[in-house]
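dumping this here before i forget
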Amino acid sequence: MTEHKGLITFKGNPLTLLGDQVAVGQQAPAFTVLGNDLAPVTLADFKGKTLLISAVPSLDTPVCDIETRRFNEEAAKLGPNVAVLTVSMDLPFAQKRWCGAHGITAVKTASDHREASFGLAYGVLIKELRLLTRTIFIVDKAGKIAYVQRVGEVTHEPDYADVLKALAKVSAS
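structure:
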């Protein structure tokens, strides 16, 4: 298994990412995660749409809470040809509870807890914590990676303006 050291930190401490790093222009790797109803969620479920994938450590942390709420607000404005998926290692039951408590309806949440399929395929599984590192991916309608933003410090929010600018560009093409 590929290990990448020094790409991210948690409170200043370096961590190790497992899996292959994905790059702009490559075909988006397949994955299988679990939806809040325990049904499989795959990349193929979003075929023909522009997909923003937000990988986060846990919805029950302040930064992930802020990020997912922000993307929920933005997703409500995007239209039917753009989907937003937030993936974490939280159990599906916890994700469902969190979404219900916070009125999250425009973002789909999915759990990678069982096999870390997404985390390993996209190179965002933190070895030391078995959590996903904060990363944004945009997959275009043809299934290619069009944008990647890995947040270097896990406790920081992503650059929303940059993500949304890239999303607008990708979804318009």
